[in-house]
Amino acid sequence: MVLAAGLGNRLRPLTDLCAKPLVPVGDRPALEHVLDRLRGAGVQRLVVNAHHRAEDVRAFARRHQGEVHVSDEPELLGTAGGVARAADLLGAGDVVVWNGDILAEVDVRALVQAHAVGAAAGAVAATLVVQPRAPGQGTVGLDRDGRVVRLRGRRIAEEASGGEFLGIQVLGSALRVQLPDRGCLVGDGYIPALEGGVLLRAYVHDAPFFDIGTIRRYLEANLAWLSARGAAQWIAPGAHVAAGVALDRAIVGQGASARGAGALERCVVWAGADAVAPLADAVVAPGLVVSA
Question: How confident is the model at residue 118 (pLDDT cuts 50, 70, 90)?
Fold first, then answer.
């Protein structure tokens, strides 16, 4: 399940035009990047929840011809409530849950396998993807065996290392059925479980990730997409770049235009938008220029 119902307040005004998980990163929406990783691991049942600009998400699902199922939330239910509401669409069993504003090259097959091994050996209720940090740092604390002993400042045992929870996890079936109809996976699910003696484990992902919830991080994710391809620019079909414009780490979307004279540096130009050079460190959407 991909959690895609949030309001996207930190990414406004871009999210006034587009649901946050559908903002373009490189050549496709952020949500498509997440689904590609899940598909690549063999996941066949894909569920996305929707609230803010829900019709955007429903339209995205329709383009995937029944592959993606939408759990509508007329009222925001929180991350735990969102998973609980989607129970029928998800079916029984363990579920990979992925925050829709997180981009990370997590090996989903290895994550699922690690959870299965842990669940068989010690009744692990959930396996959280964690980027390692020094002891006491980040949102998570781990003991020497990789068990979660701290979440959001609530500590149940001595920690050997810290970490940043990426918002990606395998949620075991036993804990799934206990989720509240409204609430947060961490605050109303994991912390009470942890304090009740339930075992949570970490899957360490020691590589960069992007929370595209802010303009700065959203722009960085796009620049990282270019860098991974060894490219200084990407111009979509139907885009027009004037002769006097030089693109330097810039993305120009379908039907967009780049005019003026000078450089577009570290910029993302959305489909149908009009960017005027010179411009740097900005996202250009139809009718908007947002500085990072």
Answer: confident
**DSSP codes of every residue in 11-32:** GTTGGGTS-GGGSEETTEEHHH
List the beta bridge partners of residue 276.
259
Residue 8 carries which side chain, given as an amino acid letter?
G
Residue 215 in contact with residue 292, Cβ under 8 Å? Answer: yes
Measure Cα distances from 159 to 17, 137, 143, 152 in Å: 43, 10, 5, 13
Q: What angle do CA 94, 98, 104 make, to 5 degrees?
A: 125
What is the pLDDT at residue 120? 75
Q: Is 2:21 a contact under the CB 8 Å cutoff?
A: yes
- The structural domains of the chain, with segments of one domain joined by +, span 2-210, 232-291
Residue range 2-210 in CATH 3.90.550.10: yes
Q: What does 124-167 look like in DSSP terms, one character per residue?
A: EEEEEEEEEESTT-SSEEE-TTSBEEEETTEESS--SEEEEEEE
Beta strand extents in 172-244 (DSSP E only): 199-204, 209-211, 233-235, 240-241
Helices 30-40 & 108-122, crossing angle to 10 degrees? 60
Helix (H) or strand (E) holding 38, with range, is: helix 30-40
In one-letter notation, the amino acid at residue 30 is A
- Worst-scoring range by mean pLDDT, 44-48, 94-98, 123-127, 201-205? 123-127
Q: What is the pTM of this model?
A: 0.92
